[in-house]
Write a structure and sequence with these properties.
There is one protein chain. The protein is of the alpha/beta class. It has a single domain (2-111, 157-205), classed as P-loop containing nucleotide triphosphate hydrolases (Rossmann fold, 3-Layer(aba) Sandwich). It is built from nine helices and seven strands. The strands form two sheets. It has a five-stranded parallel beta sheet, with helices on both faces. Strands 5-6 form a two-stranded antiparallel ribbon. α1 crosses α9 (195-205), α2 crosses α3 (44-55) and α4 packs parallel to α5 (87-96). The longest helix has 15 residues, at 159-173. The radius of gyration is 16 Å and the shape is globular. The N and C termini lie close together (9 Å).
Length: 206
């Protein structure tokens, strides 16, 4: 399967992508996770990307395109989570794929639910597991139940960065819904439902 997950910040793309990866073995390529790892390791990419992510802005296309192209070069099946995020990235993706995408899954959800999801989110900086303090707490308290690392709050899950990320989504990413609809690839699921229900919709669409 060659999939793109599209949706607003907090729509649940990462949560569902990681579950599909665990159950189906399809590799997740999550640009946000890759960029956060680069920041944590203080690589040249991380140094360049850090300020953009803190502000809730998109990291410049050439940086992101390069990491995606390198990852996809060795993969037959993948779930792209968080890429493409604008028209230029969508065109870049089309140009590097050797086989076409099977589907673009659009996680549709109203903004009201998202602030609550993002402000309660905790992540594992080591294995990228995603939790929520109310709806999906770690069984190990403030540590990751998978690898034991202390959980953290993402620095772009602060109110100002969240507002900017929504704005960027509406202006730059949402137009991709129409772009992929026109190409017959778009499959829409209702992301404003409990995680198991969203997963069941995903399986039925796939
Ligand atoms: P990225 O990491 O991709 O963030 P995002 O797209 O804003 O998406 P999120 O990770 O916030 O949300 P999600 O949909 O994965 O939700 P999750 O499953 O975690 O990007 C971060 C930044 O990196 C960008 O702002 C940009 O700067 C840069 N970047 C990344 N890609 C880029 C690109 N291509 N080009 C340029 N820059 C790029 O769930 C959220 C919370 O809700 C969790 O707590 C979870 O437990 C909970 N939850 C999940 N599903 C449910 C449910 N069904 N019901 C209740 N709670 C739920």
């Amino acid at each position: 399967m060659r999939l793109v997950f599209l949706g607003a910040p907090g729509a649940g793309k990462g949560t569902q992508a990681k579950r599909l990866e665990a159950e189906k073995g399809w590799t997740v390529v999550a640009t946000g996770d890759l960029l956060r790892a680069a920041i944590a390791q203080n690589t040249p990419l991380g140094q360049q990307a850090h300020a953009y992510i803190q502000r809730g802005e998109l990291v410049p296309d050439p940086l992101v395109n390069q990491i995606v192209a390198e990852r996809l070069a060795t993969l037959e099946s993948f779930i792209l989570d968080g890429y493409p995020r604008n028209l230029a990235q969508a065109e870049m993706l089309e140009s590097i794929l050797t086989k076409p995408l099977d589907a673009v899954i659009y996680f549709e959800i109203g903004e009201e639910s998202l602030v609550e999801r993002l402000s309660g989110r905790r992540i594992c900086p080591q294995c990228n597991a995603v939790y929520h303090i109310k709806t999906n707490p770690s069984k190990a308290g403030d540590k990751c139940e998978q690898c034991g690392a202390p959980l953290i709050r993402r620095e772009d899950d602060q109110p100002e960065a969240i507002r900017r990320r929504f704005q960027v989504f509406r202006e730059q990413t949402e137009p991709l819904v129409e772009y992929y609809r026109e190409r017959g690839l778009l499959r829409t699921i209702n992301a404003d439902a409990p995680p198991d229900e969203v997963y069941a919709q995903l399986l039925s669409v796939l």
